[in-house]
Amino acid sequence: LCRRCARSLRARELGVFAEILDYVPAEPVLYSIAEETERGASVGNIAKDLGIDASTLSARKFRMITGSSKQYFNINASTGALSVNEPIDREQLCELKSVCLLNYELVLENPLELYRMEFKVLDINDNSPSFPLSEYHINMPEFLSPGARFTLPSAQDLDEGANSVQNYTLSPDEHFYLEMQIRGDGSKYPELVLKKALDREQQATHRLVLTAKDGGNPPKSGDVLVIVTVLDTNDNAPEFEHSVYRASILENSPSGTLVVQVHATDLDEGPNGEVRYSFSNTTSADLQRMFSVHPHTGEVTVNGVLAVQRPLLEMLIEARDNGAFGMSSTAKLLVEITDVNNHGPEITITSLSSPIPEDAVPGTVIALLSILDKDPGENGKVTCQISETLPFQLKPSLQNYYSLVTSELLDRELTSEYNITITATDLGSPPLTTQKTVWVQISDVNDNAPVFSADAFDVFVEENNPLGAFLYQVSASDPDIGENGRVSYVLRNSTVAGSALTSFLSMNLANGSIYAKRAFDFEQLKSFHFQVEAKDNGSPALSAAITVNVYISDQNDNAPAILYPISQNGSVAVEVVPRLADEDYLVTKVVADDEDNAQNAWLSYHLAHSSDSTLFQLSPHTGELRTTRSMRSTDFLKHKVVVVVRDHGEPPLSSTVTVGILLADTLPQALPDFDDSGEPPPLLNATNIYLIASLACVSFIFAAFIFFLAVIRLCRSCCAGCCTVRERSPADLGNGSLTKTYCYKACLTAGSGSDTFMFYNTCGPTGTTGPSAVVTERHLTGQKKNNL
């Protein structure tokens, strides 16, 4: 628990603001110091050993970080001298480890540098050998022969190497001597050897002193009293099949799990040969609580949670018979605790720099991470990774440390923040995974110029607009934020139609609204263009420009202008037409123009007034004035028409022109006056009535004469067409004679469309006169119809 707290404290203390990790040495600096060195003793000079200027230690905020719960060393900030802060007890710090090392990291800032230091704690002979019990009792039958052996307790010394237990001595006794034995694993233990047969009646108890000595200088020793009781019976001790038993179990084995079964035999019979198993008194109480041994079967099982940090546990199993004075022997049990991957990696963020500017170069350090796994071996080895789609990567720095750095350029406008999930996985089976999310914000830099929504803006405004009229609002966006993204607008200097642009337009700098400072006239200025510049408020400021095209829309504010015929000084334009002009004769063509555009300039021509509406017609599209019929001698010589030219605007505008038309074969020297009302003179005066009556009489006489001639001619034609036909009887058919005579008349109707011929029987039937009732009609179709 203390180690775990120390590691957590170590991770919290490393609060270094890291931007660039400048230097990390590959090999640590190694110092050696004897344990129990007094406080204040000099160890070395870290500044000289690392080549650091000692005067900069305070300015660079030096820190010493260790996984230990105590700070055993100090650094003088002025000289860099390294001294002992607290005496070190090697046995308490490293327990039974052969090499005791203290790992420190020295952290310097500005720039960030990390140095590893290792302090090797040297053992001194500060511990005497000791025995678990103050006295040991051994029962020996008196009939044992010389050479009988009895295992003696082993002493323990917390020191290492030569300072640990090196040899044993036994107080002088004529019956016993001491001999060292070696177990199968190479460890030594003392045995009490019977040198001379015992005689209980002479001496029932022997008190021996067993002394254990270490190899220190000066050496230290520890004594234990061995009391030998001489028995009369049971002269055979149980013997194990193996002197050393080995077993391996998982660290998470549940209670009741079988570890191993030991077996010992006793050559005695009856109760003296019955063996009971138990832990030797030299086995630690902690191990006796974690394991249990069945007294009859010798099965060693798990009795609780295996809360140990050592991978190998050593216990002594004692086999004792049931004799009156039970004999015993011991065997060593070595239990290897196989680690189970039951601890996931622990991720600790020791330093984090957020936000970071978006223009940070690749390789910039963002965070420093500490990743630890409490499992030993492969189960404690950890791999660490992040998503490959992120612009970051993890780089190992010190042992169990990783640096989170940028791997490519950042763009805040694309991603303003990142949730970086760090995944740590150990190499156990099955592997355990731990994830931790780091939130990194990206700060903005002015790296984006304003961008307009289009390549150009087209503005349409009607002419005759009011002063100050709103025309358009340009808009540009800047993906930066704050002042870097605040956009202002300005008109670039230019001229329009020879005048400064500012005399035509004004602009709101904040929102880009454009207003007219004067009224536009389509007929004078149809279009123009200018540029608007958008600039952000960054440092340095970035800008962009866009072209705005202004198109002035036409209004129907101009009436058509008559170009031909031209009326001068208010007089009527005169056109001369031959007196006997044919139909569709081109009298004149009215030509007009409208300064407006499109439908406002589409013209149509209309005849508003004409002195003779039957004589003239006007083409509505071309303006051509033509005669509708041929001229007559009776037509008046002078005519007047009024032509209206109208556009298609809304509302429409129009102009008129009056054209005087003179019927003459030659151009007169003096043109008549057309300024009267234009109405023709009265038709029914006395002279006209006389002429009309004379013409009517002559026409009637001529028509009567023609009719008379036609009748006479018709009658002659009918007489010439008559013929006589005789009717034959059947009897006359043979000789070709006719018994009756018929008379037919052929009459043609003049002017008739019919081709009918009518034949009349003028003689009639026998005994009658006049035409018969037989009529024959012949048609051009060749069909005939007879009616009786």
UniProtKB/TrEMBL annotation:
Keywords: Calcium, Cell adhesion, Cell membrane, Glycoprotein, Membrane, Repeat, Signal, Transmembrane, Transmembrane helix
Superkingdom, natural source: Eukaryota
Compartments reported by the entry: Cell membrane
SMART domains in UniProt: CA
Any GO CC annotation of this UniProt entry: plasma membrane
Functional note: Potential calcium-dependent cell-adhesion protein. May be involved in the establishment and maintenance of specific neuronal connections in the brain.
Protein name, entry field: Protocadherin alpha subfamily C, 2
Species the sequence originates in: Cyanoderma ruficeps (rufous-capped babbler)
Lineage: Eukaryota, Metazoa, Chordata, Craniata, Vertebrata
